Amino acid sequence: MTLQPLSTPLSCLFLTSSSQYAACQINVPDLKCSLAAIAVEGQYYSFFRLVQDSDCVLSMIIRLSYSGDRVAVTQKPNGYGIWVNEPEATPRSAKAIRVSDFSEGCANADGNNRVRCPAPSKILKSTDHCKQLQIQVPDLDQPVKAIAHEGQHYSFFRMEPDPERVITILTKTACRGDETIAIKTANGYAICVIEPDAAPL
């Protein structure tokens, strides 16, 4: 974990199906015992916490991602699983699932039934590190409200006060392959979807 907080967060992944990752055990430096983990998108993520409250999930993603940790979220019947990227991890045994098995898409625990991995999402704790503007997008006559963040444009989709709905929307858009940003505001979360062909006005 980085010593200084980041000015903008790292991305996170919202996983909806076990076909998008594989459960495994990993070893990490400075720890003698192995950790429960998942392999996804060419990386290992160790289990961090099971959280029932959706507002707590979003707050935890903000805290971890601004601290320099990439996060993955899985949905369980009893809550949300929070997983933290372990870039220096190694599998516990030679029989463990290999990260290379996941370098081109996602698969289930047997390495079969590859499906598209969700697009990354970001949750910003404020509007300080994005610029509000209007953009023109193809197939629309009128300009739309948007933000600019790290060289990309994201159209405003909706303001959502319900944290559970925020997670649902981020998950659905990510599964469609659209990168999404949610910005925490006094009225809830402003959800914005990437517009790769947008022209700023």
Portion of residues in beta strands equals 35-45%
Task: Provide the structure class.
Answer: mainly beta
The assembly state of the depicted protein chains is: single chain
Tell me the number of helical segments per DSSP (H or I, 4 or more residues long).
Answer: 2
Task: Please describe what this structure looks like.
It is a single chain. With 201 residues, the chain is mainly β. 13% of the residues lie in helices and 40% in strands. The strands form 2 sheets. It has a 7-stranded mixed sheet with strand order 1-5-6-4-3-2-7. Strands 8-12-13-11-10-9-14 form a 7-stranded mixed sheet. The protein is elongated and about 60 Å long. Mean pLDDT is 86; it is low at 96-105 and 107-114.
Task: List the topology elements.
Layout: E1 12-15, E2 22-27, E3 35-40, E4 43-51, H1 54-66, E5 71-76, E6 79-85, E7 90-91, E8 121-124, E9 131-136, E10 144-149, E11 152-160, H2 163-175, E12 180-185, E13 188-194, E14 199-200
Parallel strand pairs: 1-5, 8-12
Antiparallel strand pairs: 2-3, 2-7, 3-4, 4-6, 5-6, 9-10, 9-14, 10-11, 11-13, 12-13
Give the structure's gist in a few sentences.
The chain has a 7-stranded mixed β-sheet with strand order 1-5-6-4-3-2-7. Strands 8-12-13-11-10-9-14 form a 7-stranded mixed β-sheet. The chain is 13% helix and 40% strand. By secondary structure, it is mostly beta strands.
